[in-house]
Amino acid sequence: MSVLTKIRNTMERSSSPDYRSENDGMRSYLKSDFFRSMPFWLPPTLLMGLFVYGGILWNFVLSLTDFSGVVRPEYSVSNFDFEMYFRMLEDPSFWSAARNTIVLLVVFTLVCLVVGLCLAIIVDNLLKGQGVFRTVFLLPFALSFVVTGVFWQWMYNPEMGTINTLFDIVGMGFLGQDWLGDPALRLWSVMFALMWQFGGYAMIIYLASLRTIPQEHYEAAKVDGAGFFKMYWKVIIPQLSSASVSIAVVLMVFSLKAFSWLYVVFGSNPGPAADILGVMMYREAFAANQWAYGAALGTVLFVTTVVILAPYLRYQYKRGEL
Amino acid sequence: MSDQDSEPDLSRRHYITLAGSAGALSVAGCTGNGGSGDDGSSGDDGSSGDDGSGGDDGSGTTTLELQHWWTDGGGAVGMEALQEGFQEKHPDIEINDNPVAGGGGTNLQAVIRNRVLEGNPPSTWQDWPGANLSDYVEAGVLKDIGYIFEGDMEENYRDGPLLSARAGNEDNPYVAVPLNIHRVNNLFWDISSVEEAGVDMGSISDPNEYVEVLAQIDDQIETPALSLSMAAPWTVLQLWSSNLIGLYDAQTYQDFRAGEDITSEVEAALEVTADQFEYVTPDAGSVGSDAARLKLPEGNGVMLMEGDWAAGNLFAADGYEYDEHWQHMPYPGTDGVYNINTDGFPYPQPNPTPDATDKWMQWVGSAEAQRVFCDPKGAIPCRTDVDLSEFSPLMQEQFEDFQSDTGVLTLAHGDGVSPQQGTSLKNAMSRFMDNRNVEATAGALMDAMTL
Prior knowledge:
The complex is a heterodimer of chains A (322) and B (451). With 322 residues, chain A is mainly α. In chain A, 76% of the residues lie in helices and 0% in strands. Chain A is built from 16 helices and no strands. Chain B is built from 22 helices and eleven strands. In chain B, α4 (73-89) links the parallel β1 (62-67) and β2 (93-97). Chain B starts with a helix and ends with a helix. At the A-B interface, α4, α6 and α15 of A face α2, α5, α6 and α21 of B.
């Protein structure tokens, strides 16, 4: 096709109604909220994409190599394989860490929800000193894992720790245990300490939700003859489902991040009784120089987090809150 | 309100969708760049930039960058003395002392690996020589420094530290200069408790007899017989490896290191170790190694199986004197074997200050440097010609043993195992501490040595 023909065709097309309508579309696009708001949302989105999700993707790519931390891996598709993931399946340390991670996730979250709810109901019904108790219960949440790790290490010491000493004082010394040393108790001791730290957080969110429930609901339940427990069980607690979901998600994510607590207390090897995927990932990458294996464990941890968050995000999306 | 009047051409959800698409695009961009940028060797530009600033450029002062984790205790005092001695000999070389504390060296090792990966290592760094350096040797990032060992050093270093200098394998070139040696297979005890229990320490000749003695102490006095930190697996790995040598010999230990199938020997040592667990202090699972060592002067423990760095804690305890309140001997059955844990300095390449690093390595390998460092550190020198007149009697005894003993490289620290092997051994021992499963642990320990 000659150049002249091309120009003639272009001129004909520009005078056609379709072309004018295309131009109008472009103009309205440039005037749209989407285009005009672009300077505000596009840069952070690109930065997030690059530094957060880019890092996650890179971590996955790393897990397909045999990177050991000293020589750069070859990033060619022909060298990629899932060897690290197959190795994981045969590694007893992975299975004990995965089991503990799931137990921690489920039990810690459920216990925190129950404790938080009970505390919230008690504090909500206090006539005096609500502020003081709110602060007392919430304070541990403000402390870092490092502080609470050291704190509980002392508390749990079987010879001079507060817990066993208290048992001795009340004449129940037989209940004293080697809380962190006994493999049968280790994970439960960890969970109890984490519950102590996060129970206050659950309480404060529940308390805020309880305050939004109109007084009429309590009064109506009482008029209908409901007692204290029945009123909460049938009328009030069902209205806290949204808060429960939010708290549960936050607690589950915190449980996956219990690395700092465990690292402070046990170092990089808490033993199969309390090992979790986060600690194992650190150990493999930083102590064993198995960076690709560590990256594979990181990917599994990330997928676990997504699996936990996805139903919540979908729930929020369906409710139009996202 | 105004926001309702404006054209609702895009909902919030559309924004999320579009933002998600943009994010995905940026991720795609990231991976594209990552792929091309990372595989090119030209990416190592950091090294050249740094080389120039502190390097041996022939003009003015050279700055030698040292990284280490000796930031407190005897290690810090020894390091200071080592640097002072170097600067007296080489006033034209400045030292950039750049320590990374914590994690028993893990933090420093993470920093070093990153710097080596970027082609920007320090002049040298503190590390455990031996097989711990095998990854670096395989990657070709450590220099052959045979020229430093020729003559004086090769003549005065014993075989064990020379093997550590070759990253634990005789086929490797010399890549590091070991500075000091700790012995792993030691037994410390509280004299008064042992006498009270009626135990004759000189009569214990192997780990089985040692278990009987632990039982006797447990039976006779209230103080727990064995102080052992079981909060981390490395202390138990030390104990088990000492039991292996004590029950058999140095050759069996070497066979294990070489990956040979010695199932029955490994299982026997595990069974003895499990027997010893019965006599540990009640808080063994909760206390760290420092606290476990201090149980002797506190009167809360009778025996301690530990590396000779533990002597530092005992010497530091007020009113607790060597040979009066506490004593020491090689772990039962291991007399004649020196289980070696060394510290030293590897020589990275490319090196930002090759001439200054050569001088540092020669200094570290000298008798004078090892004298000024090892005394405060509580270790013995790697050289056999060091003047030990100012060292503690304990270290003098250790040094005497070292001259004649068979040296074997430790499994619990780094001289005798690669980082991957070491972590797998500790994983296996960690499981053993929880489940006491001898058969499964023996398999896991031997599998670890084939990695």
